[in-house]
Amino acid sequence: MSFPRVLVTSCRELCTRAPRTPYGTHRDKTFGNQQRLLRIGIAAAVLALAVWGIWAYLQRTVMWNMLDLSVYYNAVDSLKDNQDALYTSNFGTWKLPFIYPPFSALTFFGLVPMGFAGLKWFMTVTSLLALAAVVWTSWGMLGYRRSAGRAGATLATFAVVLWFEPVVWTLEWGQVNLALLAVLMFDLGQPDTRRWKGVGVGLAAGFKLTPLIFIVYLAMTRRFRAAGVALGTFLGTIGLGFVLLPSASAKYWSDIAEINNRVSEQLPVGTLNNQSVQGMFRRMLDSESLSSMLWLLCCAALAILVMVAAAKASLAGQELLGVVLVGVLSLLVSPISWSHHWVWVVPAFVLLLHHALRLRRRMWWYATAAFLAFYGTWPLSLDVDGHWDGGQKLQPWGLIWLAPRDGKRENRWNVWQYFVGNSYLFVGIALTVLVAWWVLRTTAAAETGAETEAEPADVAPRPRAEKVAAES
N or C: which end of the chain has fewer CB within 10 A? Predict the structure, then answer.
């Protein structure tokens, strides 16, 4: 099938009013040797946490600063005196702007009495628990029932994904990425029959606007009640902000573009750490207008392809695949996707590992190992040119950091540095497009085959339900 025909066939199927099979009604998979797997998982998780804790302690001047958390803390603390300063001042060690919606400030406000030292411990424990919850939910979305085996698999996987570069840097910066991911995964992993499904998506969108894309996903997969609940919850967070922080809310929602652009005053969009499509074009082109135009065109093409494929995957019963596709798409099309935002590699890794375990083919094991090596973190001492420097702190760098960074060094990359410095993005786009095309092609082929087989419908036996009705 040609690409246009596959896309048209898929869109036509999504536009039908045919009922979908409710997600979350079957949990029929399990792991073998459950008790043994549980013991291995516990040992692996304890060892991984011990190694990470020792490393964080030895390099605490770097790995315990939590510079982003200091922005949140100082910004929210300023609300005690003047809420107008929330979106007009800079905060934290690096003097960065606070750009999240007012609801996020309200969420953090209740944590201010902990003090910054207490908040660092709270965010660390919360992020680690959230990481385990994401892995647990991912296995559940693949159809694994609650059992000792699933707990063991969760702990063993946790011990591995703890060393992904986005995860380590989320912990080091004191970021909220893992907590938001856990809320999204928990909500989307609920059965479609749950009346409150969508609340988590709405809350996450109220905290950070990027998760709004999942409301579109729920609507495209014909889960209109969940999409409505998510949208209503999101609007509720806006209303709560206007009630409790009226001045700050008015400033944010009237000048949202200007507020978000304030980040580029301190951290340019074209810096290495921004692994988004717009970041790539800014590093490649001197013209801001041309890079923005190419970014919009590229994002439009990616959004159509990936959203349709994600919806088709969901309708075919592959819910985790659909959610991961949408999550990665949100990273690609967002104006800014720092490397620590790429925590969507965690459920993607679970998905790869699941196929490796079920299919037992070398190709899947090689792919899983390569994925781990590529997005993993490595203890390196690097300078701003990506070279080894023994005088630098031993930090958890990913492979992208082997390219020169900061001080507009990104604009002087050679061909090799260009591919290394954009590698998160390039690999993410390549895998997403390939998987999306595979989903569209296989589902379209299945539908065509089903239609062909269903042609002699006049002579085919009636479905059992109709037969019983006729006999009665």
Answer: C
- Render pLDDT for 84-110 as a digit per residue (tens, 0 to 9): 889 989 998 888 999 999 999 999 998
What is the reported pLDDT for 260? Answer: 84
- Whether 335 maps to a domain, the answer reads yes
- Are 185 and 273 contained in the same domain? no
Beta bridge partner(s), residue 378: 397
Rg of the chain over CA atoms, in angstroms?
24
C-alpha span between 366 and 184 (Å, rounded)? 29
Count Cα atoms within 13 angstroms, Cβ side, for 220: 22
For the beta carbon of residue 316, count every other beta carbon within 10 angstroms: 16
Q: Scanning the structure block, which residue is given the tokens 């999306």?
A: 436
Question: Of 150, 171, 191, which one is at a domain's C-terminal end?
Answer: 191
The whole-angstrom separation of Cα 11 and Cα 88 is: 44
The residues near 229 (Cβ < 8 Å, ≥ 6 apart) are: 195, 196, 197, 198, 199, 202
Provide CB contacts within 8 A for 111, sequence distance 6+: 76, 119, 122
Q: Which amino acid is at 6?
A: V
> Which residues on neighbouring strands pair with residue 397, listed in sequence order?
378
Check residues 115 and 8 and name the one with the higher pLDDT: 115
Q: Range of 118's domain?
A: 26-191
Residue 276 sits in the same domain as residue 152: no
* pTM for this prediction: 0.90
Residue 27: the pLDDT is: 72
The DSSP annotation for 374-396 comes to: HHB-EEE-B-TTS-B-TTS--EE
Query: What's at 220, amino acid-wise?
Result: M
Q: What is the pLDDT of residues 434-465, one digit of tens each?
A: 999 999 888 766 555 544 333 333 334 444 44
- 310 and 433 share one domain: yes
Clarify whether residues 288 and 396 are in a common domain: yes
At 151, list the tokens.
Answer: 């707990």
